[in-house]
Amino acid sequence: MRQSITLGKVTKFVGLGFLTTFKDLFTGKLEKEDLKGFLRKIVVPIASVFLFIGLWHMGAKYLYNTEAEFKIQKALTDQGPEAAEAMRECIASGDLSCKPNTLPSPAQVWESYKSLLKDHQIISADKANFIEKTATLNEKRIAAGKDPIVYTGRPSFVDQILRSLKTVFAGFLLALLIAVPLGIFIGLSPTLKSAFNWFIQIFKPVSPVVWYLLVFMIVKTILIDSSDDSSFTISFISVGLCSMWATLVNTAMGVSTVDKDYINVAKVLKLGAFQKVFKVVLPSSLPLIFTGLKITLSVAWMVLIAIELLAQSPGLGSFVWEEFQNGANDSNAKIIVAMFVIGIIGFLLDRLMLTIQNMVSFNKTEAI
Amino acid sequence: MSTTLIKNKEATNLTENGLFAPSKVMLDLNRLKKVYPTPKGDYVVLEDLNLQIMKEEFVTIIGHSGCGKTTMLSMIAGLNEISGGSISVLGKHIKGPGPDRGVIFQAPSLMPWMTSLQNVLLGVNQVFPHATKAQRNDIAKYYLQKVGLEDAFNKKASELSQGMQQRVGIARAFAIKPKVLLLDEPFGMLDSLTRGELQDILIEIWNKEKITAVMITHDVDEAIFLADRVVMMTSGPKAKIGDVLEIDFERPRTRKAVLEHDNYYKYRKHLIDFLEH
Lengths: 368, 277
Known about the structure:
The complex is a heterodimer.
Chain A: H1 7-13, H2 18-27, H3 35-79, H4 81-93, H5 106-143, H6 157-188, H7 190-203, H8 208-222, H9 231-256, H10 260-268, H11 273-311, H12 316-326, H13 331-360
Chain B: E1 25-38, E2 41-54, E3 58-62, H1 69-77, E4 84-89, E5 92-93, E6 101-104, H2 116-127, H3 133-146, H4 162-175, E7 180-184, H5 192-209, E8 212-216, H6 220-226, E9 229-233, E10 241-246, H7 255-260, H8 264-276
Parallel strand pairs in B: 3-8, 3-9, 6-7, 7-8
Antiparallel strand pairs in B: 1-2, 1-4, 4-5, 9-10
Helix pairs in contact in B: 2-3, 2-4, 3-4, 4-5
């Protein structure tokens, strides 16, 4: 019964089916009649990427010129024609002090991306160096019962990505642990459903910012004696509470709409409550539960940025906010880099969930 | 009332008043009634329905769509509440569903995430909790072999064709060794070739196990081929039993022998006359 696993199957399974067309292109498997499909699947997306970058470039250039013209005009009215001429020269020379601050061009964003990577390499080298230096000292401190010295330098961009991922997975796990069991109970019992319905309807649309404030109020008091930094706890709990609703609603719906035939089989065989839930109800609602979890993960990733920004928890959200606040000449470009990173990671997380969903789903065509 | 129900009085096992001797009766529907309340008042599906089915008897039920056949069957299965009258199995009133009444549904109703073996085991484990794991496996495998699925023990139900799925459904129903087997148009969704195959398989197992069976069908030939008695239901509302036809072909039957039998066309005409009336 073992099926041979091909690249095509794997890529299709994880929702990246278009990659196989690339493979066919290089292995010469592409037939003439596939040309239309080839055009649609490969050429069109690539062309649209170039079109996007081109439009972005032109738009950025236009905004740059508008901003520059405004600066010159302002110098002219405020300080006279000499100052305006000086400003014009200054802008033309590309000097950082008078650079118009607007939407960065694709090239600038690419430069910032490279500089962020370089920054990361420097910081991680620094960190490794630090750990090496303090290794013997830390051993002594631990032996003496003291806390080891840890690196407290500035986190790099990559560190912040990892931190954000950690927060989002902690929040997702929390959402899963609350929403799935609760959803099962609500789905099984009409009484519980009516008890919880108002609660779900009212709290589902609450904004992430408000959730953050609520969690902040509670956690601040609970952790009042703790000297630890509570920003991580607050942000992951807020992320979890914001994002759990899709899973809660989908689980409850999946559990309460199990195919009547399956329930009849369970009744005729007189399965006990435990068996009924674990052998019939849960497996048949898994596809819907996973659809919910997929939405939860993408919502979690989306609200994370806002919550990190508020919680001052290190991560992509606070990175974006700090860059916006510090207003260095490449800040805008770094924000755009962060935007792409957020988008790409969000896409990858979605594919990850799709893969897991396909693995657990009994009906392969059902997954969306 | 019941004296008029049975046409062929020469049939054995009848007492003087036309009822079966109580010790021979497996399933007894007595003045059965089903009412669905609607906004416009009660809708009476079945009323005053009396039917006795003997041990080791195979009864098929035919009637027009919507006459309440399926309602009756699911009431016997305990999946539908009784509005009036009673249903008893071996003299005891039924209370809700239970594995003493196995059901083969119209849709195969297998758990698609389980293998065919697991699907059969789901029932077997429930009915034989004290048997060892190996014994239960043997029971499930035995019945899967009987329906010709010895190569598909570990295939997921979702990977099987409709016909194969219904075979698993048959195996699942027989494997729990019910007192009564209830079949709700089990072959209605299959093409005629597969239907014939499954009829043969069903009757083959049934010949061995002799479990009292009640089967709903739309197919006149199927009704005659499988049954000891064909029960004809009148059209609803207030459906009841209109006529009963004894089929006295000897068992085991073969399709060929049945088709060539002198009485076959007589029976067939009788049923069709009833349905077209």
